[in-house]
Amino acid sequence: MNDTFEFRLLNEFQRDFPLCPAPFAELAARLGVAEKAVLGSLEKLRREGKISRVGAVFAPKRIGASTLAAMAIAPAQLEAVAAAVNRFPEVNHNYEREHRYNLWFVVTAASEGRLQATLGAIEKAAGHALLALPLLEEFHIDLGFSLQGGKPKSVAAARPVSPAMPIGESERRLVSVLQEGLPFFIRPFALIAERIGASESDVLGRIRRWLDEGDIKRFGVVVRHRELGYTANAMLVHDIPDEQVSEIGRALAEEPAVTLCYRRPRRLPDWPYNLFCMIHGRERSEVEAIIADLRHRHGLNEAAHEVLFSLTRFKQNGARYA
Questions:
Q1: In the predicted structure, residue 182 carries a pLDDT above the cut 50
Q2: Whole-structure pTM value
Q3: Rounded to 5 degrees, what angle do the CA atoms 260, 264, 266 make?
Q4: Residue 118 — φ and ψ, nearest 5°?
């Protein structure tokens, strides 16, 4: 196996993954290699930490409930508090960022009630209050990560986020298996079907419908950007007038350098920002230059803002809705 094959596997199949009974054989045919080379490479990449899994990335708040949360922790207590937060399986991302609010994590649950109960339990376990910043409007949440720099995007749309609809028990079982990622076997969907007591065609049909309906944002290889050399990432936040936030959010979402863009609530007086963007790069100076350029070109130089670079990654895995 050469670097070109591995790069293509990482870069081209974060989405458009073949949803068929033998997907790894289909990948192999597209790449011009043997199926065992694909399976071996994926296992190696997972072992090296360069990918977390191959599978579904569910859209926020479509099949369950989720929120971004932040805490302000004294530096001497940060590792202990982060460890307490990480013990909750509902927490899937947990980062230290450069700010008074220095611990940022994502919490997901099967329902809004479960989410609120979990947030309360996290506050009690951590011994600190948290800011809950649920998604209000999405402009760009593709959740893929191009390894070739920015690629042209389609026109962004502002999508208000509605409460999730309950799903049935059979669908819940499928979510619980999918959130672990595909097994690296010749017929992975048949194995999943056997685990949940369904047919292979039912499993594939449900995944396709979830993709068509937007409940799954993408299905494919889920990369870990730090292990691939993108060690600088920043959360850029702005305070934008409410009547302008959708327009500006759409404009920023169309920028190739912006990997995520969405509106979340202000929490006054502690948190006055309502527009969030994520920007990744190989070096801090690269990300700083991108941010300066974006703010200048979009007329945001006078808008109140902050840049929160990530420092320590305490936890990163897939969301767990079931």
A1: yes
A2: 0.81
A3: 140
A4: -65, -40
- The DSSP letter of residue 303 is S
Distance of CA 229 to the CA centre of its chain: 18
**Whose structure tokens read 């808008």?**
303
Residues 6+ apart with CB under 8 A from 265: 133, 134, 136, 274
Nearest-angstrom CA–CA distance, 290 and 297: 11
pLDDT in tens, 107-152: 999 889 999 999 999 999 999 999 999 999 998 755 455 556 544 4
How far apart are the C-alpha atoms of 280 and 302, rounded to whole Å? 23
Residue 219: in which H helix or E strand, if any?
A: strand 216-223
What distance, in Å, lies between the first and last C-alpha atoms of the chain? 37
Question: In angstroms, how far is CA 203 from the centroid of its own chain?
Answer: 23
Q: Which CA distances in Å does 103 have to 85, 99, 100, 308, 309?
A: 10, 9, 9, 11, 12
Helix axes 78-86, 112-126, angle to 10 degrees: 150
